[in-house]
Specification:
Blueprint (H helix, E strand, L loop, with lengths): L6 H10 L1 H28 L6 H29 L1
Helix pairs in contact: 1-2, 2-3
């Protein structure tokens, strides 16, 4: 099995350690979180929405993202201190 990650990128993550990896994961999670929250707000603002399951799914998706994002921010502050 071959890795899908570029060797240069893998070397960067290994040399920088957990701080670089958590920063990258944090940025990705922030983008996904903002996208999910924006989609939910736009769906709610569109008026009566017949499929409440979509709004419920977006609500369920955002809760774990917020929790993981907060944990990454706390870890980054601990690393900086």
């Amino acid at each position: 099995m071959t890795p899908n990650l570029d060797p240069g990128l893998l070397g960067f993550f290994l040399s920088e350690g957990a701080a670089a990896l958590s920063g990258s994961v944090g940025l990705i999670l922030l983008g996904v979180l903002i996208t999910a929250l924006t989609a939910r707000v736009l769906l709610q603002a569109a008026g009566p929405f017949p499929h409440r399951d979509t709004l419920r799914l977006l609500g369920v998706v955002t809760v774990p993202l917020v929790i993981v994002f907060v944990l990454i921010v706390i870890e980054r502050f601990r690393t900086l201190a």
